[in-house]
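Sanity check

After download, print the first record. It should look like this:
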Amino acid sequence: MYAPSRLLACGCFLWLAMALPLLADTWPSWRGGEGNNHAAENTDVPIRWNLDSGESIAWKTPIPGRGHSTPIIVDEGIFLTTADAKSKTQSLIKLDRQSGRVVDQWVLHRNTLPAQIHNNNSYASPTPAFDGEDLFVSFHTDDAIWLTKITTTGRVIWQKKVADFKPVRFQFGYGASPLVDDDLVIVAAEYDGPDSGLYALDTRTGKRVWKIDRPSNLNFATPIIGTVAGQRQLLIGGAGMFTSYDPTSGRLLWSVDTTTEAVCGTVVWDGRRVMISGGNPASGTWCVAGDGSKTELWSNRVKCYEQSLLTIPNYVFAVADNGVAYCWRTVDGKEMWKQRLFGGGISASPMLVGNHIYIATEDGDVFVIAASPDRFQPLAEIKTGDSIFATPVAVDDRLYLRTGIGHGENRQEYLVAIGRMSP
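Expected structure tokens:
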């Protein structure tokens, strides 16, 4: 028989379990835990909301400074980076997962911002990564790429200079996010200089484990790890190549001479095929075999420069720079449909939630369309602020959007949680 105190404790525990929603899902890094920008299968978020009236808005939190990084969401909270050009700081911000309250802000770099970046870039574009215990945060600062390992409570474990990063021809800044794989954290630092490469550091010590030399060429792509043709591969496009490496050793698996010089998007895959899009100097979308046969399967001239593609089995979706959405069959590149959505201007990548695709534009519009290869099916168009550069994230029946309201010096960034309210 239970003692009264134990009955009371059990009753309190049950009350808390009923009062607090379950936080089952996480989004630990750029493009999520699977690297495909798919929300978990059980995720259900609204396809309509109103930022002005508050309809379906769980919370809206002002974010200091500016950044294009996507928030990551783990059990301990929500984390995203920001930078303040006036105070010349680059920081990591922690928010409470339920209320959206800013818990803390930790300045990681001060007075070392790049002298020049592209007008559409920010000083805080890379998305942090989480290894299950700690965070890895990268910044372009002090003419180098720096990586910081920091706890979820703000204690810096180590901070390392990964490589010099001093672009000469194009001073557009930086955007590649760190990638955690077991006990390695992989960082891209591709530019027109001698240190251009992919770097793997030991997550515990920050010491370099391997380096892959890359061409002296400014490239902005984030590498990604996927299982293609039965093999785990570290994939990246750009520098006139489509390339695969062994993620553990950095050994070259295969390379195809295709794509273009500068790519911002991340590789996507479908079964035995891998795809990417880019736009400088040549514009196009390319698909190559992922089995090492070094075969380009198909290509077209559609340009998705900043934004990545999105795959479902046997099909790939794209939203081009000119605002036209496409669906192609991955086996041969056959165009299933195309449809203009808006007038152009997109930096955020489309994401899949259930059978819906969410597309955010630089003008602050969010389009929801059906993830159907049979026909184009629009579901909603919602104005959500005045500008969106960060890719949306969907976790635990909430859609998280980093949006800006206002323009120029009057622009204020917010992180908005769309979906069910906290209890």
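If your output differs, re-run the checksum step. Summary of this record's structure: The chain has one domain: 25-419.
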